[in-house]
Automatic annotation (TrEMBL):
<dbReference type="InterPro" id="IPR002645">
    <property type="entry name" value="STAS_dom"/>
</dbReference>
<dbReference type="InterPro" id="IPR051932">
    <property type="entry name" value="Bact_StressResp_Reg"/>
</dbReference>
<dbReference type="InterPro" id="IPR036513">
    <property type="entry name" value="STAS_dom_sf"/>
</dbReference>
<feature type="domain" description="STAS">
    <location>
        <begin position="6"/>
        <end position="117"/>
    </location>
</feature>
<dbReference type="Pfam" id="PF01740">
    <property type="entry name" value="STAS"/>
</dbReference>
<protein>
    <submittedName>
        <fullName>STAS domain-containing protein</fullName>
    </submittedName>
</protein>
Amino acid sequence: MDSGPALVSILRQGPYLIASIHTALDDSQLIKFQQDLVDQIGRYRSRGVIIDVAALDVLDSFAARTLRNTAEMARLRGAITTIAGIQPDVAFAMVELGLDTGSIHTALDLEGALEYLGEVDVDVDRDHRRPRR
């Protein structure tokens, strides 16, 4: 039975995973997304993760916290995370509500996120250590 269009897609792009959230997720869907993403980091030995939220017009406190936790889990699994595509209205609302992404790098769009991971990844390979934040 088809359950409809995918709410999230996780694609492998070389050493990176690109996770696009296509629509607002409820709490249980966010947790499932988190588990799937962290699983795939190990399966594909990914060095970086991009979480693309460009399709979202709202990001509540649970979603923001879950994204921060997901990035920390990814870091513990050896992958650097960046969040791409936070819409202007979402950024405004997050600031007004006192929500943030913690120390997670953010990028304007997917292109910027890939560029960032490429730069950080080169530094890690060259120095054999994690980049400074």
